Amino acid sequence: MLLTINGRQRRLTVPPMARLLDVLREDCGLTGTKEGCGEGECGACTVLVDGVAVDSCLVPVAHVEGCQVVTIEGAAAAKRSAKALQNAFVEHGGAQCGICTPGMIMAALPLKAGASRDEIKTALAGNLCRCTGYISIFNSVEAALSPAKKGPPSRVALRRASAHARRR
Amino acid sequence: MPVDARTLTLQRPRNLKAALAMLAKEPTLTPIAGCTDVLVGLHFGTSDTRQFIDLWSLDELRGITSKPILRIGALTTYTEIIASPLVQKRVPMLVAAAREIGGAQIQNRGTLGGNIANASPAGDTLPVLAAAGALIVLRSASGERRVSFARFYTGYRTSVRQPDELITAIEIPAIDGRQWWRKVGTRRAQAISKIMMAGVRSPADHLRQGYGGQEAGRHSCKVRIAIGSVAPTVVLAEAAAAVLSQGGAIGDAQAALRKEIAPIDDLRSTGDYRQQVAANLLAAFWKDTE
Ligand SMILES: Cc1cc2nc3c(=O)[nH]c(=O)nc-3n(C[C@H](O)[C@H](O)[C@H](O)COP(=O)(O)OP(=O)(O)OC[C@H]3O[C@@H](n4cnc5c(N)ncnc54)[C@H](O)[C@@H]3O)c2cc1C
Ligand code: FES
Ligand code: FES
């Protein structure tokens, strides 16, 4: 089977009903895509197929033959907003344990610049996070997509900076 | 235990004709569309099917047209339904239901045909299609037939679809009047319904109000109400609808409704809860569509 993953063509011998998630992690060594639930509930396994966010645990690999698959490893090369998202997640405390983060970033990638809070919530409705309580994730995505290049530093960043200063 | 993917086979027909020929020869093949139900069943070992036939690449099953009747291809995804100006205009309650299914990832893959064929009592589009009076287009190698939605299901997870038939499209006649949809789940996104209701209230009712109630006693409006997750299959609440059509009181309609449904206790809710919520939804429908 000929697949295009992160812009690179790969010829793989895999069963057609194998989950795209397993093919990515086990046959391609791309372990950035996480498995949370294996039943479409958590979104940790989100990848883009021809630009559209899907749960890779629910996609048989046969369905992506001839498609462009993008995983978190290829996000930065595929979409300009990926780097901004990464920075904003650091800045605004959008990641704690991090298991949901690749899925959150992949689900946020199709959003357009300047997306509203409602649009962000709709895009991320299929992604669960056990740590952050979501607000800091929404803040991160909003900041990354806001047209204003640099806003004021977030409260998390300020708190971190002062804790850092105290420690020193 | 997840099923080992190496034990699964997948036939991949190039077009609908080839798919129907394969099914005629091997009716035990299980069709796959967006796989949002199929792969969950395989991963949790609750599904015993091992031989599949792929519909995902059959473009004949995609697309939304309206000449003259609204026709939605079986492979149409929720995302496509939500984005369709035609569906937004003609069946807004279907758009409302599609928006509340899963999250974006599920909406990008889950199909209308899959929701119908999967035949879960909690399938969110089913009450909408029942209230809309939809027709299901079934096709096998030997021909095509149309089944009215009200006759499609025969019991819990069973339908009149024969193993060699595919759902190719859903046809929805023009709907007069106000459409209404409400889903009750544990949270706003990614939640399976505890109960859901779709309703249509025809404009004849506004006419009646215009005549100062002179026509009371006659059929003063047309009402269709369908409820999901309150019985083994979707329920068309005809008695409750008849009470309301004839200008009856909402309390009488609620009493009629309670007799038409038989909700069970399950892990999502109790039967008593569903009885009460169904009655509340009926009142909300009637008030909102005034
Ligand atoms: C996380 C998650 C959340 C979900 N949330 C909801 C929800 O809120 N509401 C809801 O209603 N559902 C929900 N679902 C269920 C599911 O997404 C829908 O039922 C979906 O519409 C199934 O479509 P599919 O194309 O993925 O079907 P598949 O999984 O491919 O197939 C489902 C069944 O239909 C058969 N089939 C599919 N297409 C055809 C056809 N054209 N002709 C004949 N048989 C066919 C298959 O053989 C199979 O038995 C959810 C699922 C998940 C994983
Ligand atoms: S692992 Fe795929 S959605 Fe949870
Ligand atoms: S950061 Fe831990 S699950 Fe989201």
Describe what this molecule looks like in 3D:
The complex is a heterodimer of chains A (168) and B (290). With 168 residues, chain A is α+β, with helices and mostly antiparallel strands. Chain A has two domains: 2-75, Beta-grasp domain (Ubiquitin-like (UB roll)), CATH 3.10.20.30; 77-167, Orthogonal Bundle (DNA polymerase, domain 1), CATH 1.10.150.120. Chain A contains seven helices and five strands. In chain A, strand 1 (2-5) and strand 2 (8-11) form a beta hairpin. In chain A, helix 3 (81-91) packs across helix 6 (135-145). Chain A starts with a strand and ends with a helix. Chain B is built from 13 helices and 14 strands. Chain B is globular. Chain B has 290 residues and is of the alpha+beta class. Chain B starts with 8 loop residues before the first strand and ends with a helix. Chain B has a domain at 178-205 and 220-288: Enolase-like, domain 1 (2-Layer Sandwich). Helices cover 36% and strands 21% of the residues of chain B. Chains A and B meet through strand 4 of A and helix 2 and helix 6 of B. The complex binds flavin-adenine dinucleotide and FE2/S2 (inorganic) cluster (2 copies). Flavin-adenine dinucleotide sits between chains B (30-38, 40, 55, 74, 101-102, 106, 109-111, 113-115, 117-118, 123-124, 166-167, 190, 192) and A (39-41).
Quickly give the structural class of chain A: alpha+beta
**Mean pLDDT value of chain A:** 93
Number of helices of chain B: 13
The low-confidence parts of chain A are none
CATH class of the largest domain in chain A: Mainly Alpha
| Cα distance spanning the termini of chain A | 55 Å
Distance between the termini of chain B: 51 Å
Beta-strand percentage of chain B? 15-25%
SSE order of chain A in H/E notation?
Answer: EEHEEEHHHHHH
> What name does CATH use for the topology of the domain at 178-205 and 220-288 in chain B?
Enolase-like, domain 1
Number of strands of chain A: 5
The appropriate CATH architecture of the largest domain in chain A is Orthogonal Bundle
The chain-level structural class of chain B is: alpha+beta
* Rg on CA atoms of chain A, Å: 17 Å
Mean pLDDT of chain B: 92
Question: CATH class of the domain at 178-205 and 220-288 in chain B, anyone?
Answer: Alpha Beta
The CATH architecture name of the domain at 178-205 and 220-288 in chain B reads: 2-Layer Sandwich
Largest sheet of chain B: 5 strands, antiparallel
Rg measurement of chain B, Å: 20 Å
CATH topology name of the largest domain in chain A: DNA polymerase, domain 1
